[in-house]
C-alpha cells in the first residue's frame, strides 16, 4: 500500500466515522473501486490503526465528558454523572452481544459486498431524512432510549449503515435533543472501539505481525500517515458534525447517501 492510498483511507475513515455516511461502507467501496484486496493481515492492521486514530480523536474532542463519565462510575452516587455513565454502558450491550456471538457472520459482509453497501446506504439516507424533520426538544437520553439507541448501533455494524447516522437519527426520532443526541452517539462508541481494538490485538494474526513472524503487507510509513490522516480528519469531522446536527442539516447527508447508494447498486449490477 502506497502513502497516498494510506492517506486516502485515513481521510475517508476520519470523515465517515463521524459524518453520517458509513465509514465501513465507504472503505468497502474504495477497495472495490481501486481493486484492492485488503483481506488478511493488511486489512487487520489498517483497521486497528484507523479505528484507534478515530477513537483517539473522539477522546480529544470529548475529553471533559469522558472524564465526567469515569468519575461518575466511581462515585457510586445516583447523580446525573453516574446515571449518564450507566446509560453509556447500557447502550453498549446490544453491539457487544452481536459482535461476540455473530463475529464470523459479520466478517462475511466485509468482503466486497457492494450491493449490500448500496442498499444499506439508502436505508441510512431514509433514516436521516426522517430524523431531520423531527421536532426540536430539550429531552435527555433516558434509560429506555439508551437501549433502543444501542440496538441501532448494533444494526449499524453492517457495512453501509452509518453508526453515527443510525444512533443520532434514532435518538432524534425518539425525541432527544439534537446536541445531546450527537454527544451521546459519539461517547457511546468509544468503549466499543477500544474493545474491538483489544480483541483484534489479542488475535494470533496480530501477534504474528507484531513479532515479525507474519508479513503485514504494509510499511510502517504507510501505517503512520494513515493514522495521522484519520486522527486529524476525525477531530475536524467530529467537531463539524456536532454543529451540523444542531443546525438540522442532516438532509444533505441523506441526499448524499441516496446518490452513493444508487451508484454502488449500479456498480454491483454492471460489474
The helix/strand class is mainly alpha
Radius of gyration computed on alpha carbons? 18 Å
Mean pLDDT: 82
**Number of separate structural domains:** 1
Instruction: Characterize the overall form.
Output: globular
Biggest sheet details: none
Percentage of residues assigned to helices: over 70%
H/E series: HHHHHHHHHHHHH
What is the terminal-to-terminal distance?
24 Å
| Strand element count | 0
Task: Kindly estimate the percentage of residues that lie in beta strands according to DSSP.
Answer: under 5%
| Uncertain segments | none
Number of helices: 13
Question: What brief labels describe this structure?
Answer:
globular, 271 residues, mainly alpha
SSE inventory with pairings:
Blueprint: H1 3-18, H2 23-34, H3 41-61, H4 63-75, H5 80-101, H6 103-108, H7 114-131, H8 143-155, H9 163-173, H10 178-201, H11 204-211, H12 220-246, H13 250-270
Structural summary, described in words:
The two termini are 24 Å apart. It is globular and about 55 Å long. It is built from 13 helices and no strands. It is mainly α. It has helices spanning 3-18, 23-34, 41-61, 63-75, 80-101, 103-108, 114-131, 143-155, 163-173, 178-201, 204-211, 220-246, 250-270. Helices cover 78% and strands 0% of the residues. Helix 2 (23-34) packs antiparallel against helix 7, helix 3 crosses helix 12 (220-246) and helix 4 (63-75) packs across helix 5. It has one domain (3-270).
Amino acid at each position: 500500500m502506497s502513502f497516498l492510498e494510506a492517506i486516502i483511507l485515513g481521510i475517508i475513515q476520519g470523515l465517515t466515522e463521524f459524518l453520517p455516511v458509513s465509514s465501513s461502507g465507504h472503505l468497502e467501496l474504495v477497495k472495490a473501486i481501486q481493486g484492492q484486496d485488503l483481506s488478511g493481515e493488511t486489512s487487520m492492521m489498517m483497521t486497528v490503526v484507523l479505528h484507534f486514530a478515530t477513537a483517539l480523536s473522539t477522546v480529544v474532542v470529548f475529553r471533559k465528558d469522558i472524564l465526567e463519565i469515569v468519575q461518575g462510575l466511581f462515585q457510586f452516587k445516583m447523580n446525573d454523572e453516574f446515571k449518564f455513565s450507566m446509560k453509556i454502558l447500557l447502550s453498549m450491550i446490544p453491539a457487544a452481544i452481536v459482535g461476540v456471538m455473530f463475529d464470523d457472520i459479520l466478517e462475511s459482509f466485509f468482503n466486497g459486498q457492494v450491493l449490500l453497501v448500496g442498499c444499506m446506504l439508502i436505508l441510512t439516507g431514509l433514516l436521516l431524512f426522517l430524523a431531520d424533520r423531527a421536532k426540536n426538544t430539550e429531552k435527555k437520553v433516558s434509560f429506555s432510549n439508551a437501549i433502543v439507541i444501542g440496538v441501532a448501533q448494533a444494526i449499524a455494524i453492517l457495512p453501509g449503515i452509518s453508526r453515527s447516522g443510525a444512533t443520532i437519527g434514532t435518538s432524534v426520532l425518539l425525541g432527544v435533543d439534537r446536541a445531546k443526541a450527537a454527544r451521546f452517539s459519539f461517547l457511546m462508541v468509544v468503549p466499543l472501539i477500544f474493545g474491538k481494538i483489544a480483541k483484534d490485538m489479542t488475535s494470533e494474526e496480530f501477534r504474528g505481525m507484531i513479532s515479525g513472524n507474519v508479513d503485514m503487507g504494509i510499511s510502517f510509513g504507510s501505517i503512520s500517515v494513515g493514522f495521522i490522516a484519520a486522527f486529524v480528519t476525525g477531530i475536524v469531522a467530529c467537531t463539524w458534525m456536532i454543529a451540523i446536527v444542531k443546525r438540522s442539516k442532516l438532509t444533505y447527508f441523506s441526499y448524499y447517501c441516496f446518490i452513493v447508494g444508487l451508484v454502488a447498486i449500479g456498480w454491483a449490477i454492471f460489474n
